[in-house]
Write a structure and sequence with these properties.
- By secondary structure, this protein is an alpha+beta fold.
- Helices cover 44% and strands 20% of the residues.
- It is built from 13 helices and 16 strands.
- It has helices at residues 14-29, 39-61, 117-120, 123-129, 135-148, 157-187, 192-212, 233-249, 265-282, 290-314, 361-366, 400-403, 417-422; strands at residues 8-10, 63-66, 70-74, 79-83, 87-95, 98-105, 113-115, 133-134, 217-218, 230-231, 319-332, 340-345, 356-359, 372-378, 386-391, 429-435.
- The strands form four sheets. Strands 11, 12, 13, 14, 15 and 16 form a six-stranded antiparallel β-sheet that branches. Strands 1-2-3-4 form a four-stranded antiparallel β-sheet, with no helix packed on it. A four-stranded mixed β-sheet has the order 7-6-5-8.
- α7 (192-212) runs antiparallel to α8 (233-249).
Length: 441
């Protein structure tokens, strides 16, 4: 091949693109259309068919032309061009195992051109790149220079790189250990205060490490930091994931969000702002932009609100008011936010809890239509009322704590006291108080 002859033409694999396009188009017009009656499904199939048509058009229209002094790229709806003198540098990247190369213009008003494997495998294109700055090579040199000048490292450059790799493992060890502690709390949440303390530790551990060893750790993502620094972002994220999982699973006897969950919004905003500000202060000297701060702020919204909800329910040692509810319906949702719901009704006007209650899988399976369940309204450790439910089928003897305030009728002749108590009617509202810390309601 003569690498000096121009222009060079690079096209994608037309056969693969056409096959993919047909696979997206044909189902909508042949097989599925005969059996599907839901109009929304037709919209989905039409969207897939549109993508398929775009791929087929791209197979014939998409091409990259390499000239001696410029490069042009033509797509289905647009085209772009960069003169060689307008290219500032280039950078290679990999997406799902496929290599790409971005040609970056010096003028921000010009568009970046991305070339694929077809051009990268051509020696003529490699020769055309000579003289342009390789950002990957430049950054590697900068890292090597920084490592060579680092007084905290010793030995040859390869020895220093090996030492840095060991340093970068430290945040992973912290994350693994913290994840194991969170898993232990999930399976054995005793004593109760551990269920609150352990999930709340993550962000503050990260902040403490940044404050004391800022030279080794950062809150920046690993792709944007200097080679020798380890990212502490997992410590922030693990706490958020645990709190989300706890309230998502809604295990029997587990913590619940307050009935008036809107009260969490203001303190969550304050808490997220405070934590983000502290993380930014202890990270002084880092090149932290607004996007990085937002990546901390939004997860900390969940962390702050979830931590308050955990404290409010787990550490609630107040008395709970117990109500009996009648199940009028039940349904499940599917998809990413799948959950179990019971539609309930109460004859007691004093009950102001939810009439559609999200329950655990165990309570949902046990409850039947017109069955009776027990709901407990807890005052909350922070003054935010929350509700928990459990099954209490008719015909089953009430626990002593529930039945104690109800006076039993005097036993008839030949009747035991227990038999006399069983003749009492079951009230719609049991005006009793339960200790939320000791009774699993």
């Amino acid at each position: 091949m003569n690498i000096d002859s121009y222009p060079k033409i690079y096209r994608p694999n037309s056969v693969i693109l056409c096959c993919l396009g047909l696979l997206l188009i044909l189902p909508g017009f042949t097989v599925f259309s005969r059996y599907i009656t839901d109009p929304s499904i037709y919209l989905i199939l039409a969207g897939l068919a549109g993508v398929g048509i775009f791929l087929i058009l791209g197979a014939f229209k998409y091409k990259t032309l390499l000239y001696r002094d410029r490069i042009t790229q033509t797509g289905v709806f647009s085209s772009k061009e960069l003169r060689r003198d307008d290219i500032r540098a280039y950078r290679q990247r990999t997406f799902k195992g496929a290599p790409f190369l971005d040609l970056l213009p010096a003028d921000s008003r010009l568009k970046t051109i991305t070339v694929t494997r077809t051009a990268l495998n051509d020696p003529a294109f490699t020769a055309w790149l000579r003289g342009l700055e390789d950002l990957d090579a430049a950054e590697t040199k900068a890292v090597d220079l920084a490592l060579a000048q680092d007084d905290h490292l010793s030995g040859t450059l390869e020895d220093r790189k090996a030492q840095v790799k060991e340093l970068l493992k430290a945040p992973n060890y912290f994350a693994y250990g913290y994840g194991a502690a969170l898993a232990l709390v999930v399976f054995y949440p005793h004593p109760a205060w551990l269920q609150v303390a352990v999930p709340m530790m993550g962000p503050w551990m990260a902040i403490a490490l940044m404050a004391t060893r800022r030279r080794d750790y950062t809150i920046l993502g690993t792709g944007a930091i200097l080679f020798r620094k380890g990212s502490l972002v997992p410590l922030f994220m693990l706490s958020v994931f645990f709190i989300y999982l706890v309230f998502k699973l809604e295990a029997d006897g587990g913590p619940r969000l307050p009935l008036d969950w809107q009260r969490l919004i203001t303190p969550s905003l304050i808490g997220a702002t405070l934590i983000t500000a502290i993380a930014w202060v202890v990270s002084r000297g880092e090149k932290i932009n607004h996007f990085t701060l937002l990546k901390i702020f939004f997860p900390m919204l969940v962390y702050s609100g979830g931590s308050l909800a955990l404290i409010n329910s787990v550490l609630d040692h107040n008395k709970a008011s117990i109500f009996t509810l009648t199940v009028k319906g039940k349904h499940q949702t599917s998809g990413k936010g799948a959950a179990n719901y019971l539609d309930v009704f109460s004859n007691d006007h004093g009950y102001d809890g939810d009439t559609t209650i999200r329950t655990s899988a165990g309570v949902y399976r046990a409850a039947t239509i017109d069955d009776t369940i027990c709901a407990a309204i807890h005052p909350g450790a922070l003054g935010m009322r929350w509700e928990s439910v459990t099954t209490c089928p008719i015909g089953q003897e009430l626990p002593v704590a529930l039945s104690a305030p109800i006076e039993a009728a005097p036993p008839q002749r030949g009747e035991t006291p227990h038999r006399a108590k069983s003749r009492l009617p079951r009230p719609a509202h049991l005006p009793v108080q339960l200790d939320a810390a000791t009774d699993d309601v």
